[in-house]
């Protein structure tokens, strides 16, 4: 008695395909992420000019970094926590406006406290950008979460 194996059938792909629109949205978010991170890199690069122009000590330069890092890094999880529970499409543009105000302010500051405020605004903008842009990438992914996140990052 001969047994025969059932005919091999082609397994249908269960991986969702990303549409061109999805890839454009994810690409736009990735480009915005690049711009956001480049803006963050500008701040440390102008430390020598700030130090010379305002006769700052290294302690004051460190306080600028601390102010920026507290607002950019430590605030970010709280923003993500809040926006997960209360999604609001205005969070991303408001964060970008904070960054813009911080950059413009940094170009016109006249005192150390205003430098700290400008650094904080740049950090706040960054802390709102990352969780929201990551959420947008996931929502636009069409089920391809790994592709969306890796492209966004």
Automatic annotation (TrEMBL):
SUPFAM superfamilies referenced in this protein's UniProt entry, alphabetically: MFS general substrate transporter
Protein name: Fosmidomycin resistance protein
Boundaries of every Major facilitator superfamily (MFS) profile domain copy: 25-153
UniProt entry keywords in alphabetical sequence: Membrane, Transmembrane, Transmembrane helix
GO MF annotations in UniProt: transmembrane transporter activity
Signal peptide residues on this chain, from the entry's feature table: none
Organism: Pseudomonas syringae pv. aceris
A Gene Ontology cellular-component term: plasma membrane
TM segment ranges: 21-46, 58-79, 91-124
């Amino acid at each position: 008695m001969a047994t025969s194996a059932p005919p091999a059938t082609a397994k249908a792909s269960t991986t969702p395909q990303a549409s061109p629109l999805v890839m454009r949205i994810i690409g736009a978010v990735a480009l915005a992420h690049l711009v956001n991170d480049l803006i963050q890199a500008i701040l440390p690069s102008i430390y020598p000019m700030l130090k010379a122009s305002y006769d700052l000590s290294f302690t004051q330069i460190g306080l600028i970094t601390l102010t920026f890092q507290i607002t950019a890094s430590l605030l970010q999880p709280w923003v993500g926590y809040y926006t997960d529970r209360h999604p609001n499409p205005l969070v991303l543009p408001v964060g970008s406006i904070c960054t813009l105000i911080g950059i413009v302010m940094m170009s016109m500051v006249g005192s150390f406290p205003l430098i700290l405020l400008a650094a904080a605004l740049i950090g706040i903008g960054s802390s709102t950008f990352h969780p929201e842009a990551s959420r947008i990438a996931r929502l636009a992914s069409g089920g391809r979460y790994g592709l969306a996140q890796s492209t966004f990052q």
